[in-house]
Amino acid sequence: MTTPKGISAQVFADGLAEMRSAVGADWVFTSQEDLHTYRDFYSVLWDEPDERVASAAVAPASVEEVQAVVRAANARGIPVYPISTGRNLGYGGAAPVYSGSVVIDLKRMNRIIDVDEGNASCLVEPGVSYFDMYRHLQETGSKLWLDVPDPGWGSMVGNALDSGGGYTAAPYRGHFEAQCGIEAVLGDGELFRTGMGALPGSETWQQYKMGIGPSLDGLFRQSSLGVVTKMGFWLFPQPEAYLSASIDLQRFEDVEPLVDLFNELEYGNIFNGMPSITSPVLTRGNPMMFQPVPEPEVMNRMVEETGLPAWRATAGFYGPEKVIRAQWEYMRDRFSAQFQNVTFKENQFVKLPLSAEDMQKVSKARFGVPSLEIFSVGSNGFGDFNPSDGHIWFSAIIPRTGKGLVEANRVMRRECARLGIPLFMFSPAVTCWTRSFVLFAAVPVYKDGRNKELRDNVQEIIRICAQHGWGEYRCPPAFQDAVMDSYSFNNNILRRVNERIKDALDPNGIISAGRYGVWPKHLRGGRG
Amino acid sequence: MITGLDMDRRNLLKWSAIVPLAAAAPYTALAAVPQGVDALVIDRRHWPAGTPTPLAGLAAPQLFTIDGDVTQLWYQTLDPIWRKPGFVLGGVTGSDALFVLEVLAGDRGRRVTQRRVLDPVVAGLQPVSWIIAPHHPSVKG
Ligand SMILES: Cc1cc2nc3c(=O)[nH]c(=O)nc-3n(C[C@H](O)[C@H](O)[C@H](O)COP(=O)(O)OP(=O)(O)OC[C@H]3O[C@@H](n4cnc5c(N)ncnc54)[C@H](O)[C@@H]3O)c2cc1C
Predict the structure, then answer these.
(1) B75 neighbors A133 (Cβ within 8 angstroms)
(2) Could you say which residues form the signal peptide (chain B) (predicted)?
C-alpha cells in the first residue's frame, strides 16, 4: 500500500481504520486492483512516475459518514480528494490532483432528495448521475427536463463543480449557472450551506441563490474547500417545440456583423438554444475540424469555387411553436435587412415530448436525454477517436466577436501545426454559457510514451493563448498550475486570494490539494 | 486486474448453440464468444456489411446486440440487473464499447475478469472477447 507523502504508514493505517469504522470495511479500497479504477484513463502522465494516483479510496453513504471521513483525515493531515461519479475524462478522470490523496468516492450518495415540479428545481446528492435523474423524471411523469453533457454517465454535482456544460436552453446548459444551493462538509468536518439553505426552515433554498452577504457558492466551483454533499439545480420546464435553424453568409467580411447581430438577438432573448458559428467551406472534409481561416480574398474565392457558404450561424429555439416560429421569422427579417446574399434553412423542427421515431433522429443532448453514444462516434466517422486511448480537452474562453473568432482560429491552428499537436476536433465558436465563446480542441493522448512532448506543447499553447488574453476555463490536472499562472493580473492576485481562503477554511490543507493551482501552505513551495 | 472466475457454476450447455455458429461465422470473433455466462453481448459492427447475421440462429434467452453504442442496452437492461447480486456477462464487442461497459460495471462492483483481444482490426475497430463478473461483496451472488 502506498502512503501519501509525509504521512507515516502507521498514521495512514490509523486514519484508514477510522474511516473503515465510519463507512464499513467493504467501502474502503486499498488493493491495486481496486485503485486501478480511480486512475485517469485519459491521463497525459499515464504510467509515468508522476501519474496522479490515489493511495486509497473510501465510499461513504451519508453526510455523517463524509464528516467522519473528513475528520479522520483532518486529524492526521491525510490528503483527500472528493469525486462524485469520477467520470471527468478529458479533465482528470477519477484521479486526484495530488498523488497519494485518498479519493472520497461519493457514488453511493445517490439520493434524489427533491424534485419540485412547481419551482422546476431539484436537490440531489453527488452520486446522482444524469441517467439517474432522467429515469426519475420519466418514471414520475415529470414535465421537467434536465440538461446533460455529451456523456450522460457523469453526475449533476461533479459536472457542475468542474464547470461543465450541456446543450439545451441558455439558463440551464451552464451547469454551475443553473445550480441553486450547495451543502458542503468543510475541512474540519463542519457542515455548511449556501444561500437560503443557511436559514433554518426556509423553503426557498432552490429559489434564491444568494441569501445574505457575499455569495459563497463560487467557493465550491473548481475548488479545494469542501466536500459537496448536496446541490440544488434549476430544471427546464419541458418546452412545446424545438427548432434549429441556420443562416448562411457568403463573404469573409460578413463574420464581424454576423456575430454582432447574433449576439444582439441571443442577448435579447430572440433565441435561447445553443449558438454556434462555423464555416461550411472550411469544414468540408470533417464537420468537427474547422480548418484555418485564410485571407479574405482566398476564402471568398473558395466560396465561389465550391458554392459553399463562408459562414453558418446556427441557433436553437425552445418554446411554443407559435412563439419560436415568430422568433425565427424576426431573425430572418433582421438578417435580410442587413446582409445581401443571405440564405436561411430550417434544420429541424420537432414537437415535444419527442416521439419514439424522433428520438432516433435527434441529437439527444439537445433534448436533455442522457446517452453514451459519443463513445462510439469515432467509429462512425467523426474523427479519429478511440475512447480507450483518450484525449484531453483544450477549452479557452475567446472574445465573442467576429474578429476574435478568426484570430483565435488562426493562432491556434498555426501554433498547433508548428508544434505538431495532432487535433481530432477543433471548433472555435460554441458556448454552453451565457455571453461567451469557447474554443474547444480535442487533443489525443497516448499510452506509449509520447505524452511528454504533448505536455510541453500544451503548456506552450496555454502560454500563447494567455499572451492573446485567452484563458482556459477548465483543464486536466497536469495543466492546472500553468493555467492558474496565466491569470496573472496584479502579480497573480487571483491565486494569492484563493490561497488565503484555502488557508483560512482548510488550514491543514487536506481537501483536493492543488486543484486548479491552489495548493495548501505546506505544499505551495514546490507546487505539489 | 484479471481475477479468476468460477465458470463451473454456470450452465455451459446454455451456450452450446454458439459452438456450431462459431464455425460458420464470417468473422473469427465469433469463435471467441465467451462461454458459461448469464448473457452475451454481440457488437454487430464486427460483421461485414451485407453478411447475413448468424445471430438469428442463436436461441439464447439472453442475447443482446449493440451497434457500438451501449446506451440502450445498459440503461434498459444491464443497469437494473447490475444493481442486484450475481450475473455474469460475456461479450464480443469493439474495445470502445467494452471501455464504456467496463467503467459502468465498476460502478456496480463488477470487473472485467477475462479479456482477449481479437484479430483483425477492421476499420479501426478492435474486437475484444470479454467477461464481466461481480467482484464487490455487495453484488457477489
Ligand atoms: C467524449 C467526451 C465528451 C465530453 N463532453 C462533455 C460535455 O459535453 N460537457 C461537459 O461538461 N463535459 C464533457 N466531458 C467531460 C466529462 O466527461 C464530464 O464533464 C463529466 O460529467 C465529468 O465527470 P463527473 O460528472 O463524474 O464529475 P466528477 O469526476 O465526479 O467531478 C469532477 C471534479 O469535480 C470535483 N468534485 C466532484 N464532486 C465533488 C464533490 N462532491 N465535492 C467536491 N468536489 C467535487 C473533483 O475535483 C472532481 O475531480 C466529455 C468527456 C468526454 C470523454
Answers:
(1) no
(2) 1-31
